[in-house]
Design a protein that fits this description.
This protein is an alpha/beta fold and 540 residues long. It contains 19 helices and 16 strands. Helix 1 (2-9) runs antiparallel to helix 2 and helix 14 (368-379) packs across helix 15.
């Protein structure tokens, strides 16, 4: 098209307004247009912000590119429409039956920019007003489900914090974390995809009015574990400047048989040799076990053959011990081998209620005797007695609530505080505990009668993203939280107008409890309240 040929030939600040005018005209009235390093994209203007969705940050990992490290997206001619998110990566339904959905062609991201039309002001590096902080979101879903657009648009963060927000898709399950000797081990494609997205951000942030020198990575659950991995991954150095870890610290773990009798302990990170062994076994089960050509055989299989519950779950741990992640992340933190960036990290008060609630129908905790049996099943007799002394069933509304409190403290809250202590020896570190037990249940999952969800895993998300209606006190809390999160992204210190100061993690009462209403926002002694001295010595 003629305007594209003109765009490619024109150079220099004097002609930039003409270039942008031509591009904006091609996009149509009111539609923001930006020239990225791969080509021109046309977004959508909204009330106070613009969105650019479905932008490819890497080439499609399909066909012969399945299980290869990501490469930059090919350039395109003309104006690419960026009015809707790209396909989610291949995955099974998060809840309930059903076959796989999504696509292997899924390495897309979405950009939200506060303010009016972007194209005329920030279409090229160096143009426009002072650069805004950039916040890059990695979604949760246990490395088996999810997508960058899963939480809707991030207008609360973008508008209140005047930040550019980027949400990212990355390969999942067997497509993202498969390992095999013919791959040279366990490349960790999911984490490599995220690094490629961060390289895209570095190359393009200024074009959207963002500051490539002020990038915050943040995520929840598997997204929080991803952020943890980037803190210690050598290849992530310099790609971000602050980190927010929500319910996914490096030391996150769950005791064996804590949810169902047949489930072992949950560890989000696995040694490379174990992942490779699993890959050899999976290839053989799929009929691809010849001495040579295993990958060629596997790449000929269609996605539905690979996207089985067994394979998606088997390859849902981030491998360590290879080039991408040389060391187990929690050990790296303990040894001080991580990138020196400020960290904001926390958990929710009732993390495990969401997970436990999905299994009570088949494995209930009806009385104190069943509660004691659960303790012994997961921790052994000696530790079970010590735990029951600190968490007597009679102190809780139901035995199920007592068991959820044990698991929340042992699996999420105390591990996060242990990691926070290691981080705080080297970098500014801030800790929170989301404690609003009236938070809306945005998941759609039914609540068991003997286990109210309270402040369960992920229930802070409606306070950062527009996922569910909030009461007036909760809207106040939402304003404070988005203020804290975006101030941290801007300066490395969470300071919000009209909100209590957030102290550095150090003294006992330096964890900030976040709740709506009378409980409010206040500093608490979380280590004592959640029996962390017990968990530090007894388990894991």
């Amino acid at each position: 098209m003629p305007y594209v040929r003109v765009l490619r030939r024109l150079r220099g600040a004097v002609l930039l307004p003409l270039v942008l005018l031509l591009v904006a005209a091609a996009g149509g009235p009111g539609q923001p247009v930006v020239e990225t390093d791969r080509g021109v994209v046309r977004g959508r203007a909204h009330d106070g912000y613009s969105t650019f969705e479905g932008i490819p940050y890497a080439a499609a990992p399909t066909g012969a590119a399945r299980w290869r490290l990501p490469r930059p997206a090919p350039r395109w001619a003309g104006v690419r429409d960026a009015g809707a998110p790209g396909a989610a990566c291949v995955q099974l339904p998060a809840v309930g039956p059903g076959g796989p959905g999504g696509s292997e062609d899924c390495l897309y991201l979405n950009v939200m920019v506060p303010g009016g039309p972007v194209g005329r002001a920030a279409g090229r590096p160096g143009a426009g007003p002072a650069r805004r902080p950039v916040m890059v979101w990695f979604h949760g879903g246990g490395f088996t489900t999810g997508a960058g657009d899963l939480y809707g648009r991030a207008e609360r963060l973008a508008l209140r914090g005047d930040a550019v927000v980027v949400t990212v898709n990355y390969r999942l399950g067997v497509f993202g974390l498969f390992a095999h000797p013919e791959l040279g081990g366990a490349p960790g494609f999911a984490l490599a995809d995220q690094q490629e997205a961060l390289r895209w951000v570095r190359a393009n942030a200024a074009r959207f009015g963002g500051d490539p020198g002020n990038v915050t990575v943040f995520g929840v659950s598997a997204g929080g574990l991803s952020v943890c991995a980037h803190l210690v991954a050598p290849g992530s150095a310099g790609l971000f400047h602050r980190a927010i870890v929500q319910s996914g610290s490096c030391s996150t773990t769950m005791p064996p048989r804590s949810l169902l009798p047949g489930l072992g302990a949950y560890e989000p990170f696995a040694p490379e040799q174990r992942a490779v062994s699993d890959g050899v076994g999976a290839a053989a089960a799929l009929g691809c076990d010849r001495p040579a050509g295993v990958l060629e055989c596997l790449r000929r299989l269609d996605a539905r053959t690979l996207a089985t519950p067994e394979l998606m779950q088997r390859f849902s741990q981030i491998p360590y011990g290879g080039a991408l992640l040389p060391e187990e992340p929690r050990r790296a933190l303990e040894s001080g081998r991580f990138h020196r960036v400020p960290v904001l990290q926390g958990a929710t008060l009732d993390e495990m209620r969401l997970f436990l609630g999905q299994t009570l129908a088949v494995d209930p905790v009806p009385d104190a005797s069943a509660y004691r049996a659960r303790l012994e099943r997961s921790f052994g007799p000696s530790t079970a007695r010590a735990v029951e002394e600190r968490y007597p069933a009679a102190a809780y509304p139901t035995p199920a609530v007592a068991w959820a409190a044990v698991l929340s403290d042992a699996s999420f809250i105390c591990p996060a505080l242990r990691d926070g202590a290691a981080l705080s020896r080297h970098v500014p570190t801030f800790a929170y505990l989301f404690s609003d037990r009236g938070a809306p249940n945005f998941t759609g999952l039914p609540q068991p009668p003997d286990l109210p969800y309270g402040a369960a895993h992920g229930f802070e998300l409606p306070f950062l993203f527009a996922l569910a209606p909030l009461t007036e006190p909760q809207r106040v809390l939402s304003d404070r939280m988005t203020g804290y999160w975006t101030a941290f992204a801007r300066t490395g210190t969470p300071r919000a107008a009209g909100a209590p100061d957030w102290p550095y993690l150090g003294a006992p009462t330096t964890v900030l409890s976040l709740a709506a209403g009378p409980a409010g926002v206040r500093a608490v002694d979380a280590r004592t309240a959640h029996q962390c001295a017990l968990w530090d010595t007894r388990w894991p």
